[in-house]
Amino acid sequence: MALKISTKTAHAEQSQKHVPHRVSWGDNLTQLSVGTILILTIITASFIGLTIDSELDPTNNAYVLMRGSTDRYGYDWWWHSLVAVSKETGEYQPFFFEYYVVNPAVENGNDIIYGQLNSTRERRRKPSYALLKAGTWGSRNPRPESNTDHAVQLHGFYPATSFLASQDRMFVNIGDGVGVANDTYLRGHVRVSAEDAERHPEYLSDAGEMSWELRARKLLRFNVGYGTSRFFRFLNAFDMYWHVEGMKTEYEGTIFYNNKTFDVIPERSFGYQDKNYGKDYTNPWVWLNCNNFRSRNKPELGALSRTSLDVGGGKPSLFDGLIQLPRQLLIAFYHEGQLYEFNFSKFWELSVVDFDVDVNAVSDGEKVVRWVINAKNRLKGTRIEIDFVCPKDTMININYESPSDGVRRHTNLWNGGYSSGTVRLYKWVPAGTFAGVPTLVHSMLPGKYELIDTFDGELGGGEYGEY
Questions:
Q1: Which three-class secondary structure state does DSSP give residue 17?
Q2: How many other C-beta atoms can be found within 10 angstroms of the C-beta atom of residue 144?
Q3: DSSP one-letter code for 296
Q4: Paired strand residues for 134
Q5: What sign has the CA pseudo-torsion 268, 182, 98, 388?
Q6: Which residue has the higher pLDDT, 46 or 255?
Q7: Do the beta carbons of residue 437 and residue 430 sit within 8 Å?
Q8: Nearest to 330 by CA among 316, 349, 340, 345
């Protein structure tokens, strides 16, 4: 089988093309011996078993940082993004909240160690703290006089000793109850004065105040496969892990931002919750999600309640960079509850992925970040085409410090909540008498991909960065 990935990326200041990356596995299966095929079968069965283990593991969304050697070096976070409605204007406005901890067992954990301070670097200390991160991507029609219409990220720091989390389920408590989250509920409060934001660049924060109290109902999930199984977590194999417990989540409640009220309505929240953890961040960094889709075949249905897109990836790194895999993507698309997956780690499904990301693209005269992704799953005979953009004037360069040394390597990590575009979903249909042939060999027989539907999405999340 063959896995082909080609990427084109552009940095914020200049456009740069990457030579296409190609990885081929098993192009000459017919030349393999019976013994080799048997060994490959056993290996494949083992990875399938680990994938099933990961999919059934109830602790995937729990705190995992302290389970291995990363307890002194690494990070763990839970990310929530959603759409609220302004009481003042009636407009949609997307928000995000993150519960984060880095290096909780470094030194005594009683001090906040900011990675950006010269004293931290001179003494070769690692950053260590718990963090409540909150923000908004602002209004699509910002008013100059408004204090809520512009994109911001707000950071509330606490000593690592004020962080409490469960290893059995999602439960996190930061700042002795200031920020609390589990699978069904979250609340928090962050305030950064204009004076503190200016005088303390190590906060990596804008100025503002935000509080939230929300209920969550998770409708769809995505497990990336064997990479998050207990076996690979025990080995601390990957430098960055990803799990999506709430690929489509309905939120309900209230957000207060700079003395303005925003209502969160379940069927219009278009929410999302995932988590990342590990020892470092992927480079490049790719993410795209949308939960607000409409069908072109059946426009009368309005917003589809069980249709969802999620894309994540970059360049997987194992064992502190000892093994570097080619650039990869994981793609999940639910169409009314049925999962269509294009997952390079499930190599037995013979997936092929091509993707371009351009941070200097222009759409309708507007500067945008653009994701163009095409993928096939040859085992299941499915194909997907994704074309999304996000206006750059609504995005932020989201801030993270490397756990190993506090360096902010991703200085142009574009992150937005107004991503919009199309998804085209296809199914392979063999010609004539081949219609009853197993799907595995469809690509070798006469036939074609037929369009199932085209979906228009908006108010999605998107992220891209490379250094």
A1: strand
A2: 6
A3: S
A4: 97, 154
A5: negative
A6: 255
A7: yes
A8: 345
* Averaged pLDDT, 157-174: 96
Q: Mind listing the pLDDT tens digit for each residue in 454-466?
A: 999 999 999 999 9
pLDDT band at 14 (very low <50, low <70, confident <90, very high): very low
Q: Name every residue whose Cβ is closer than 8 Å to that of residue 211 and which is 6 or more positions away in sequence.
A: 187, 188, 189, 190, 255, 256
Mean pLDDT for 258-277 is 97
**The token pair that represents 44 in the structure block:** 């494949």
Give the H or E element holding residue 263.
Answer: strand 260-264
Distant-in-sequence, close-in-space partners of 361: CB < 8 Å, separation ≥ 6: 10, 367, 368, 369, 370, 389
Give the span between the Cα atoms of 283 and 406, in whole angstroms. 16
- Closest by CA to 207, choosing from 134, 278, 275, is 134
pLDDT at 458: 98
The pair of three-digit structure tokens given for residue 401, joined into one six-digit string: 């410090």
Tokens 């507007």 belong to residue: 366
CA gap 82, 271 in Å, rounded: 4
Q: Residue 21: what pLDDT?
A: 38
Tell me the whole-structure pTM to 2 decimals.
0.87
3-state secondary structure 94-113: EEEEEEEEECCCCCCCCCCE
pLDDT at res. 139: 87
Neighbouring-strand partners of residue 334: 308, 339
Question: How do residues 376-419 score in pLDDT, each as one tens digit?
Answer: 998 899 999 999 999 999 999 999 999 999 999 999 999 999 99
CA dist., res. 242 & res. 227, Å (int): 9
- The secondary structure of 403-459, three-state, reads CCCCCCCCCCCEEEEEEEEEEEEEEEEECHHHHHCCHHHHHHCCEEEEEEEEEEEEE
pLDDT digit string, tens, across residues 296-327? 999 999 999 999 999 999 998 888 888 888 99
What are the CA-CA distances from residue 276 to residues 63, 287, 312 (Å)?
10, 12, 11
Q: Give kind and range of the element (H or E) at residue 43.
A: helix 34-56
Segments in 62-218 forming alpha helices (H): 118-122, 194-199
- Which tokens belong to 56? 């059934």
Distance separating alpha carbons of residues 200 and 95, to the nearest angstrom: 24
Over residues 322-360, the pLDDT tens digits come to 888 899 999 999 998 899 999 988 888 889 999 999 999
| 3-state secondary structure at position 92 | strand
Q: What share of the chain is helix, strand, coil (3-state, %, to 5)?
A: 20, 50, 35
Q: What is the H or E stretch that residue 364 is in?
A: none
